Amino acid sequence: MFDAKSGLLRQSIHDRFTYPIRISTINDEQEQAKLLHEEMWTPFDTEHDGVFRCHLIQYDHNHQKDRLSNGDLVVFYFHHGSFDGRAIDLFLGELKVAYSGGELQSPCLQYIDYSFHERKLAMTEARNYWSELLQDYGWDRQLNLGGTKKPMSARRTSRGFSSRYGIFPADMVKKAGEMLHPFLYL
């Protein structure tokens, strides 16, 4: 968040964050389908609820309410901005290890590691660019980042836009990586 008084960005880290887990008991597949449909179409309130939801859907077996049985579901919902294809593989691998009682590895890189790396970079040019661009900006007003001029409706429609792009062969992607030296933000 930006602190207008000091003119600096400020990071706030919560010591402890709990994720809500919704638990439902159902009797048949119709109820299951209804719950899954509702959950899938419930938008994320990222400001208050975060970017992750978990829902345990348990059939009414009249026994072992504290255990999952065959046919019960553990459903994870992630906001599209917080999860990509690589993250899915990592998450499922870690979930499998944790579920089987294995020992989870500590992450080898933390955000703080990236912060230290970034501080070592020569950021003078980037800092000068942004300072010059935002020199006379009034911090008490919202920054216009473009976008649509008319307000968007909350009503869902089937209208959309699509683009087609060819997938480059693996050797072209490798060559581009060698030329551009990309790196991941972790």
What does this structure look like?
33% of the residues lie in helices and 13% in strands. By secondary structure, it is of the alpha+beta class. It has a domain at 21-99: Chloramphenicol Acetyltransferase (2-Layer Sandwich). The chain has a three-stranded mixed sheet, with helices on one face. The protein is extended.
Structural topology:
Layout: E1 2-3, E2 8-9, E3 21-26, H1 29-40, H2 46-49, E4 52-59, E5 73-78, H3 85-99, H4 111-120, H5 124-133, H6 170-180
Parallel strand pairs: 3-4
Antiparallel strand pairs: 1-2, 4-5
Task: Label this structure with key terms.
Chloramphenicol Acetyltransferase; 33% helix; extended; 186 residues; 6 helices; 5 strands; alpha+beta
Short description:
The chain has 186 residues and is α+β, with helices and mostly antiparallel strands.
- Rg on CA atoms, Å: 23 Å
CATH architectural group of the domain at 21-99 = 2-Layer Sandwich
CATH superfamily of the domain at 21-99: Chloramphenicol acetyltransferase-like domain
The biggest beta sheet is recorded as:
3 strands, mixed
Number of helices: 6
Weakly predicted, low-confidence segments: none
| Overall pLDDT score | 77
Shape: extended
CATH hierarchy class name of the domain at 21-99: Alpha Beta
Instruction: Report the span from N to C terminus.
Output: 20 Å
- SSE order: EEEHHEEHHHH
> At the third CATH level, what is the topology name of the domain at 21-99?
Chloramphenicol Acetyltransferase
How many β-strand runs?
Answer: 5
**Structural class from helices and strands?**
alpha+beta
Order of adjacent strands in the largest pleated sheet? 3-4-5
Oligomer: single chain
- Provide the helix percentage: 25-40%
